[in-house]
Amino acid sequence: MVQRVLLILAVLLAALPAAARTVTDSAGRTVEVPDSVGRVFAAGPPASVLVYVLKPEALLGWPRALRAEERPYVAEPYRDLPETGRLTGRGGDANLELVLALKPDVIVDFGSVRDTYVSLADRVQAQTGIPYLLFDGRFESTAASLRAAGAALGVADRGEALARDVEASFAGLDAALAEIPEAQRPRVYLARGPDGLETGLKGSINTEIIERAGGRNVADPGDGRRGLVQASLEQVIVADPDTIVTWDRNFYRAVRTDPLWAGIAAVKRGRVYLSPTAPFGWIDRPPSLNRLMGLKWLAGLFYPERFPSDLRTQVRTFYSTYYHVNLDGPAIDRLIEWADGRAP
Amino acid sequence: MGRRAGALTGPGAMRSPGAVAILALLLAAAVPAAMLVGPYPLTLAQVLAAVAARLSGSATIGDSVDTVVFAIRLPRVAAALLVGGALAAAGTCYQTLFRNPLVSPDILGVSAGAGLGAVLGIFLSLPVAAIQGMAFAGGLACVALVAAVAAAVRGRDPILVLVLAGVVVGALAGAATSLLKVLADPYDQLPAITFWLLGSLASIRAGDLVPALPAVAVGLVPLVLLRWRINVLALGDDEARALGVEVRRLRAGVILCATLVTASVVAIAGVVGWVGLVIPHVARMLVGPGFGRLLPVAALLGALYMLVVDTLARSIGTAEVPLGILTAAIGAPFFLWLLARGRRSWS
Questions:
Q1: Domain limits, chain A
Q2: Between A173 and B13, whose confidence is greater?
Q3: CA atoms within 13 A on the CB side of B139
Q4: Phi-psi region of B62 (alpha: psi -120 to 50; beta: other; left: phi over 0)
Q5: If interface means Cβ-Cβ distance under 8 Å, which residues of chain A face chain B?
Q6: Domain A17-174: what homologous superfamily?
Q7: Which residue among A221, A228, A250 sits closest to B125, beta carbon to beta carbon?
Q8: Which of A68, B174, B315, B318 has the lowest CB atom count within 10 Å?
Q9: Rounded Cα–Cα distance for residues A182 and A168 (Å)
Q10: Overall average pLDDT of the B143-149 stretch
Q11: In this predicted model, what pLDDT tens digit does every residue of A160-172 receive, in sequence order?
Q12: Which of B146, B148, B201, B133 is nearest to B173 (CA)?
């Protein structure tokens, strides 16, 4: 009899999921997460960068397969991870059945923690039974999100180390920027789209890197509105930015010889900069941890005398610390040339 | 379908030369006014000085005032006139051709095709000129497909077949556009696609007008020359045939011309709805349904309307307001008002 009871107990125990613990995400949701997290589904491109940086071996796939020019900058085993689509953002195309078939221990989302995304997280979690963790993707929350996500994925030490690195680089920036009055900071226009006439208003997640690096976004409506907007050339002429940053190669090629842009201070002074986008964009695309690289780059461009460190060294360190790749000389050269306006 | 344009002069209609003269005067006043409105503050004196400098050859390249006046606002004003006039003219043609007041230039899928072409161009990260070329080609291709389907289906009401084929091909192009939106990079291409599909003249430049202007002219001239025959077409196929008009060929010619006109402007301005639907109505209220007098009045009215809307688009907010949003916000209530007014402006 006792044996039979023990047997039943044993069967019941085996049927239970692996020992679980409770994690609180950035939205304040408390979620039961298995003790060891070995398989993570990234809900969108920003989350895929977060998971790849923290625990690449747990990443089940990329929302979009890597392009040829991006592959060398991702560590070998993870270049060929399958394409899984995205659950969030504009137009989710990941199939929930496909998500289930991948048997993830958790789904991780990184970005906005507005109500839409919170309710999406709740819905997907209720429907699939897979714990869904939502972390805040804004710059000011980066360190906190790294710690929380690191703990949730079982890599608390790595999360802590990276969070400290982020805090140190933010603190370094803040210390240097404290001495620079607002009026002396560069006036920056972030040009998006093939004609460069798409931009993000001040405070948008797409452009917050400008202020973080000590610039002033010229697209400032002054009423707290955010998001991507269409601008006109006339508005750019009125704003007269002294620095233009873009990652669009078509626009970058065209702008320096375009007579219409010729009168703009940034073009006159040759201060138009092209951001590399391999494996992820330096300033955006997606808005995730990859922007930390762009932060170093932009701060150096804005204040060369205050942040004189060598871009090569920064690239090598950042890519090895965050992206798990030890770049060889030519690979670094290509990125430096790219940041210098000669895209591959 | 089927409502006929009986009387060629509407009740109480204005005399057409009078309407044309008044509209031309209004346009002549609106163009200089629009040149003064925009985010870059310009006074009349500055504009006149810039014009004088250009005329005397003493303008400095790269001077901000000169750039704004000649490279930004002038092309933009010209583009607004061209786009508005072309869409209204094309809408008038289609409404007369299909004998239906609810028809807009998109009826045969030209906007859907142009949208697909442009979205494909953005998706492939092509330069702006190539995106415009793809939009133009897409618009023409879509209508060609519709025409081919209509030509293949014989023995049915040809107009019904054309409209249905237009709906089907347009929906197909719309689905393909949506597919590309799903596949597009959400941080890079998707915003560009969204803005393109809403229409804007924010990035227009003189160079864009160089191919568009002759293409619109090539389309418009035959329409003007054939205006009396097109008028007869509005009576119905049998009546037109009885009056000695070759219905099939004429219809094909009108579709070709109106499509060329629409595709040329959609390629540079994006998808701008409502203009081609509402403006012909207003023109019809002014001068009645006769196509000969309707066409110039609608074109002038469309040009004026688009000039006003585009001037609003660049001045009411800190960011550009997409044209498609403004034309819908103005056009939809106006259209409802027309309906509620209940006057049968068509016949």
A1: 17-174, 180-336
A2: A173
A3: 29
A4: left
A5: 45, 64, 86, 89-91, 93, 192-195, 197-198, 201, 206, 219, 221-223, 228-235, 237-238, 247-250, 254, 259-260, 262-263, 268, 281, 284-287
A6: Nitrogenase molybdenum iron protein domain (3.40.50.1980)
A7: A250
A8: A68
A9: 22
A10: 93
A11: 999 999 999 999 9
A12: B146
ipTM for this prediction: 0.77
Tokens of B47: 């504009």
DSSP B67: I
Does B211 have pLDDT greater than 60? yes
d(CA A104, CA A3): 35
Tokens 């045939």 — which residue? Answer: B241
pTM for the structure as a whole: 0.83
From the list B63, B186, B203, which residue is nearest A89 (CB)?
A: B186
Contact B62, A260 (CB under 8 A): no
Nearest chain A residue to B198 by CA distance is: A230
Task: Report the chain B residue with the minimal C-alpha distance to residue A197.
Answer: B203
Give the Cα separation of A87 and A109 in Å (integer): 9
Q: Closest Cα partner for A199 from A222, A220, A183? A: A220
Q: What is the CA radius of gyration of chain B?
A: 21
Helix axes A329-339, A311-323, angle to 10 degrees: 110
Q: Which two tokens stand for residue B72?
A: 């930004």
In chain A, residues with a C-beta closer than 8 Å to the C-beta of B131 are 194
DSSP one-letter code for B184: S
Residue A214: partners with Cβ closer than 8 Å, 6 or more residues away: A173, A176, A177, A180, A185, A186, A299, A302, A303
- Indicate the range of A331-340, B12-21, B59-68, B103-112 predicted with least confidence: B12-21
Token digits of residue A98: 């496909």
With CB atoms and an 8 Å threshold, state whether A194 touches B318.
no
> How many H-runs (helices) and E-runs (strands) does chain A carry?
13, 11
With an 8 Å Cβ cutoff, are B127 and A286 in contact?
Answer: no
Write down the pLDDT at residue B199. Answer: 92
Q: Which fold has domain A180-336?
A: Rossmann fold (3.40.50)
Label the pairing between strands A106-111 and A40-42: parallel
Give the pLDDT band (50/70/90) at residue A97: confident
pLDDT-derived band at B62 (thresholds 50, 70, 90) equals low
